[in-house]
Amino acid sequence: MSAHDYLGEGFSYRQDVLFCEDVELARVAASAGTPCYVYSRHGILSRYRAYDEAFGGTPHQVCYAVKANSNLSILKLLAGAGSSFDIVSGGELFRVLKAGGDPAKIVFSGVGKTAAEIEEALAAGIGCFNCESETELALIDACASRLGKRARCALRVNPDIDAKTHPYISTGLKDNKFGIGIGEVEDVYRRALNLRHVTMAGVSCHIGSQMLDPAPIGEAADRILALTARLRSLGAPIEHLDFGGGLGIPYRESDRTPPIAATIGDLCRRAAPFGLELHVEPGRSITGSAGVLLTRVLNRKKTEAKEFVVIDAAMNDLLRPALYKAHHEIAPLRRLPAMGYVEADVVGPVCESADYIAKNRRLANVMPGDLLAVCSAGAYGFVMSSNYNSRPRAAEVLVEGDHFRTIRARETYEDLIRGE
Ligand SMILES: *Cc1c(COP(=O)(O)O)cnc(C)c1O
Fold it and tell me: Which residues have any ligand 1 atom within 6 Å of their CB?
């Protein structure tokens, strides 16, 4: 891994000027304005392909987790590359179908699917429901019966493994709202085999997000594989295992992340004796490093206690620091040796003390008007943005080689009041 991985996939300095692929980012800011999300097409596709190729000859599906970044152009890009999709709502189903995704390669996850969403998914002919409880399974059976269909289902098992990540994004422990406990799941499969409109085709799990240690992934896989053997002996026709997403990306210069090829290779080796199709649901590790948030410095402010760099991006644009205390590197678009450094809080214009992008950060000594890139913001960035403080949501731009185009227009004031 190179020392500048935190800049992201597709982003690099050329003579102290920050580029995305062959486009100088200052050009994007001049044309699209700020704040603005910028994604590298090559960055996204190379991460997708790294997953796809890591499986080698093992039958598999790489189900991109749409919630990480659901822009239609990005979904189209991935659909064109052959991706499957992991959705968590009827809205995401709508997006994937609009983007030309193959319905048979959609898996529907999530802990609170409504009857209406389940019926939309059945009507579209999705590949599998990752089901979170016995009552949800009964609901899927009833919906399928009404539509005269059969639903392929996997139960989401909670393997009770500590993914060693932030508590807000850890999902595999037994006091979590997600999945069915590994101790009770066999009984649920046994009863589910009697449902007439459901086929128990798989087992799924997802133990957390931003995992930097590959050990829990292997441990969870072994528990799920042992369970699969027991389920088959009950007569369950298990054809696939879904290991979920969760691989981490380098948000800091010091982060070392599990390589995709080695992690997937290890899963394939563990699962090989079972002859199963393997699914994964990566979100962050496909789009996260392939995007930045461009922002302009509005002001510098000094109080008795602190120095502040006020920028035009705020918590409504990028919620992760406020929500998870997440760290994003902040890189100047022009890195001048004479600039020096400042230690400051980097904050937005929103009226909340939680509105910050970085705290006590040493960064380039930027002045009002200077441009910055908030790195690794391609996942859980724009999708979590809001109109809080009546701020129109940012534009999104996709870079390909030496071209770029707007893939979502900046919202207008009229957009703010639509529907009111
Ligand atoms: C959020 C989520 C993912 C994607 O997680 P990443 O950390 O973005 O890879 C995959 N599967 C399920 C069920 C999820 O909830």
Answer: 65, 67-68, 86, 109, 206, 209, 244-246, 281-285, 379
pTM here is: 0.96
Alpha helices in 172-238 (DSSP H): 185-192, 215-233
The angle formed by the CA atoms of residues 10, 12 and 18, to the nearest 5 degrees, is 115
From residue 296, alpha-carbon distances to 57, 187, 202 in Å are 47, 57, 48
**Are 9 and 24 members of one domain?**
yes
User: How far, in Å, from the CA of 282 to the mean position of ligand 1?
Assistant: 6
pLDDT band at 3 (very low <50, low <70, confident <90, very high): very low
Residue 336 binned pLDDT confidence (cut-offs 50, 70, 90): confident
Range of the domain at 234: 109-282
pLDDT at 171: 67
pLDDT digits (tens, 9 = 90+) for 184-202: 999 999 999 999 999 999 9
How many angstroms separate the alpha carbon of residue 227 from the centre of ligand 1?
22
Atom of ligand 1 nearest to the CA of 68: 8
CATH number at residue 297: 2.40.37.10
| Residue nearest to ligand 1 atom 10, measured at CA | 245
Distance CA 153, CA 365 (A): 54
